[in-house]
Design goal:
The chain contains four helices and eight strands. The chain has one domain: Ribonuclease H-like superfamily/Ribonuclease H (Nucleotidyltransferase, domain 5), CATH 3.30.420. It is of the alpha/beta class and about 170 residues long. The protein has an eight-stranded mixed beta sheet with strand order 1-6-5-2-3-4-7-8. The longest helix has 15 residues. The protein is globular and about 40 Å long.
Length: about 170
Amino acid sequence: MDKEVCSKVSPQWKPPPQGLLKVNFDGSSLGNPGPASIGGLCRDALGEVLWSFSGPLGVCDSNEAEVRAMYTGIKRIDKELYDKIIVEEDSKNVIRWLLRSAAPPWRFWSFFDEIEDLTAGSSMVFHHVRRSGNSEADSLARSGVHRNVLEWNADYQHSKTINSID
């Protein structure tokens, strides 16, 4: 995993350079703790959505929702097909914890250990972005609280529903 992080100031989402993918994640909690959900999507250099997800978590705080959004999305990335990926998240805490520039709370250690294993050997770059640059992931996360199960959408035309979030 490339241990690189940048703070982006762009107020809107921008496509990745040709040959790269960009993945955005977000978590939402209606209360702290409260009903929570996650969402994310992967887009190519043309801005075309390759996959997305949205779903409920139950009751948790916003930090847990953000961590579980990142974890769920990272598990979805096919690193054999795509090894050059830009990952964007609007939670500074999650990015700092992921890059170990700050210690994550102990309750998240297993998530970050597995994310590190999943990203080993890949060329992922992690960026913190403003909420406005993460608006589609935010929308997917907010809508997830109204779903019964996590829904995956592989090409924005056909939905696949799975029954659990690890």
